[in-house]
Design goal:
Helices cover about 0% and strands about 60% of the residues. It is mostly beta strands. About 5% of the residues have low confidence.
Length: about 110
């Protein structure tokens, strides 16, 4: 997968070596620049962090945002997913790291 970001639209493009782009899905929802995107291993989900101070979890099959995680006070510049859990991690220009349970939409730890 690779992505390109233009203002409020993020495009995730699955790449097949045999057939190049097989599908394009525009995920619309962030209100500012998308800073980072990661696949959540072993799921059909993607996590994104944005300058709008939110983290969003997306279903890349349906193109729907499954949850928006709010709590940062500045740009979210990095995100990561922890395999075999319902946890994602975000960090940003507010110098705070947050661990989120994306199933329940709760911040479970702040560092």
């Amino acid at each position: 997968f690779f992505f390109s970001s233009r203002r409020r639209h993020t495009r995730f493009l699955p790449v097949s070596w045999a057939r190049r782009c097989v599908q394009e899905t525009a995920l619309v929802g962030h209100t500012n620049q998308v800073r980072q995107v990661k696949l959540i291993p072993f799921t059909n989900l993607i996590v994104s962090g944005s300058s709008d101070q939110t983290v969003k979890v997306w279903d890349y099959v349906t193109g729907q945002c499954t949850i928006t995680l709010s709590g940062h006070t500045d740009y979210v510049t990095s995100v990561a997913a922890i395999a075999h859990t319902k946890l994602v991690v975000s960090g940003g220009d507010d110098k705070i790291i947050k661990v989120w349970n994306y199933e329940y939409g709760q911040c479970v730890n702040t560092c």
